[in-house]
């Protein structure tokens, strides 16, 4: 069987299968022997580099729990289909491999919890604000690259109203967002661009699947001061956290780390203004930019 690109989802599936093998009391060589394959081949499966034969693995490892089997099958389905159906193919020339993982998670998530420390998050940006942010970041060297990345950002926003892949039984992505006050005051593109961005935020905050809260400067110290992050929640499987340092995203899926971030986000929501008060706060700042 040919090797495949070890995307984050495929690596996650491989980790699940490795856990099954370990729980069955088998080392790598023993597991490979039961499956009739070499140790290196099984290692590739567990590292997300080769597609598994799930029925064969379930039988070899003695996995009979129907819920566990169904969850693993669904994760495998997502791992094998998400990138093919995503906007990655259309914009792959401007998508870094790690950002491709982010888009993939975004498209299969049922809810994202996002804390933004510096700028309005991409899913809620206007095109002119997005262009100012992207140009200011200096990651792209030509106007065409900037234009393509702005187009990509606008395309990504469709997940808030349209379900990727046409799955009519699944609602659009639910977004809960806590914005540091600095996001609302930093004049990306000038006061006019910022004002229109804030007006756009107010309009989007009225949508039923979008919850916006503002963390004002008066809140003082808080647990989001280390930077922005996103917690992806799924219909099956545990959440994944994307932490955003200067240049790339770092993905965390270990239980202890994910729990720490989900708890931190709950504390940020408790510390932030409620949704109605946040809208009033945003409207006041928008008036100040006139």
Give a brief rundown of this model.
With 290 residues, the chain is of the alpha/beta class. The protein is 52% helix and 11% strand. It is built from 13 helices and six strands.
Index terms:
11% strand, single chain, alpha/beta, 6 strands, 6-stranded mixed beta sheet, Endonuclease, Chain A, 434 Repressor (Amino-terminal Domain), 2 domains, elongated, 290 residues
Q: Please give the order of strands in the largest beta sheet.
A: 3-2-1-4-5-6
Our estimate of the beta-strand percent is 5-15%
Low-confidence runs? none
| DSSP E strands, number | 6
Question: How many whole angstroms does the radius of gyration measure?
Answer: 21 Å
Oligomeric description of these chains: single chain
| Overall tally of domains | 2
Query: Treating each run of at least 4 consecutive H or I residues as one helix, how many helices?
Result: 13
Shape: elongated
Corresponding CATH architecture of the largest domain: 2-Layer Sandwich
- Fraction of residues in helices? 40-55%
Reading the helices and strands in chain order gives HHHHHHHEHHEHHEEEEHH
What is the CATH topology assignment of the largest domain? Endonuclease, Chain A
Distance between the termini: 62 Å
- Computed structural class: alpha/beta
Mean pLDDT: 86
* Main sheet makeup: 6 strands, mixed
Query: Tell me, what is the CATH class of the largest domain?
Result: Alpha Beta
Describe the structure.
By secondary structure, the protein is α/β, with parallel strands linked by helices. The protein has 2 domains: 8-85, 434 Repressor (Amino-terminal Domain) (Orthogonal Bundle), CATH 1.10.260.40; 94-288, Endonuclease, Chain A. The chain has 13 helices and 6 strands. It has a 6-stranded mixed sheet, sandwiched between helices. A hairpin with a 6-residue loop joins β4 and β5. α1 (8-23) runs antiparallel to α5, α2 (28-35) packs across α3 (39-46) and α11 packs antiparallel against α13. The radius of gyration is 21 Å and the shape is elongated. The mean pLDDT is 86.
